[in-house]
């Protein structure tokens, strides 16, 4: 009886593990869907159509994260989700959430500096929330003072709320 119970438990554990494709396979599926969506995005006429086109891609990348949370491809998938929401579906609050989650889960990740900078950038240029933008740029500069984007972050911080005309040199001077 004990042997039968152990066998059943072992088979159940094996079956549960076999239900999920490997991370590489799931990521490749998501990446292929992203490539198809990017090729088609110029043909859509509205933001809603772009969302319809890219939401399955986001779902595929989300599945990689859900099924393989500790895998290096989960990190890449999360950044791709943030980028898609920012660049293609223009879902700025959702992009911000994904960039913040990336920084939280992968503070030493390859895209952590870019994610931190983009949080400030989106608050400033898309949501016009100057307080949140300033806080994000300050966090970026505190953590990455020597990063290649530090000058841009400092410029953004110094020019928050200023109209573009005030930033250009005046003619005749």
Give the strand content.
under 5%
Q: Structural class, from secondary structure content?
A: mainly alpha
Global morphology? globular
| Low-confidence segments | 4-17
Helix content: over 70%
Number of strands: 0
The first-to-last residue Cα distance is: 94 Å
For the sheet with most strands, the description reads: none
- SSE pattern: HHHHHHHHH
Radius of gyration: 22 Å
- Total helix count? 9
What is the arithmetic mean of pLDDT? Answer: 89
Please explain how this structure is put together.
The chain is mainly alpha-helical and 173 residues long. Among the domains are: 21-91, no CATH class; 111-160, no CATH class. Helix content is 73%, strand content 0%. The protein is built from nine helices and no strands. The chain has helices spanning 2-18, 23-40, 47-67, 72-87, 92-105, 112-125, 130-143, 150-158, 164-167. Helix 3 (47-67) packs antiparallel against helix 4. It is globular, with a radius of gyration of 22 Å. Mean pLDDT is 89; it is low at 4-17.
